[in-house]
Amino acid sequence: MTRNRRLMLLGLAVVVAIVAAVVIGSGGSSTTESDGPATVVVRDAKPVGGVKDVTFKKGGTIDLTIKSDTADEVHFHGYDVHKDVAKGGSVRFKLPAKIDGKFVVELEDHEQTLANVTVEP
């Protein structure tokens, strides 16, 4: 095997390794959205597409809607807001993003995380 061919294969292997690392690092069932309104759809007490990661800017507005086929209480931890969602209903959390940090939104009785909310300074 020639030197150029070995270098080409080595370069190709490095590219494959980088692509694999990016895919694995961004893997999982979560989706990410930044700012603006976000919606989580709940089916059978679980978030469709996995737990959603959403980010908002401190000083802005948190705007998160939960549409659920399961009746439960939705708890937005950290901001300590609780809202009851009816089966087939929805609840909307629209509030000032005053506290920065990472917060969990969950179906309280089912102990199921729906969203991880980050409020950035």
Mean pLDDT: 86
Number of helices: 1
Largest sheet: 6 strands, mixed
The portion of residues assigned to helices is 10-25%
Provide the spatial order of strands within the biggest beta sheet: 1-4-10-9-6-7
The rough form would be described as: elongated
What proportion strand?
Answer: over 45%
Can you count the beta strands? 10
Which architecture name does CATH use? Sandwich
| Straight-line N-to-C gap | 55 Å
Task: Write the CATH homologous superfamily.
Answer: Cupredoxins -  blue copper proteins
Determine the structural class based on helices, strands and strand pairing: alpha/beta
What is the CATH C-level name?
Mainly Beta
Report low-confidence residues grouped into runs of 5 or more: 22-31
CA-atom Rg in angstroms = 20 Å
Query: How would you spell out the order of helices and strands?
Result: HEEEEEEEEEE
Any idea how many domains?
1
As for the CATH topology, it is Immunoglobulin-like
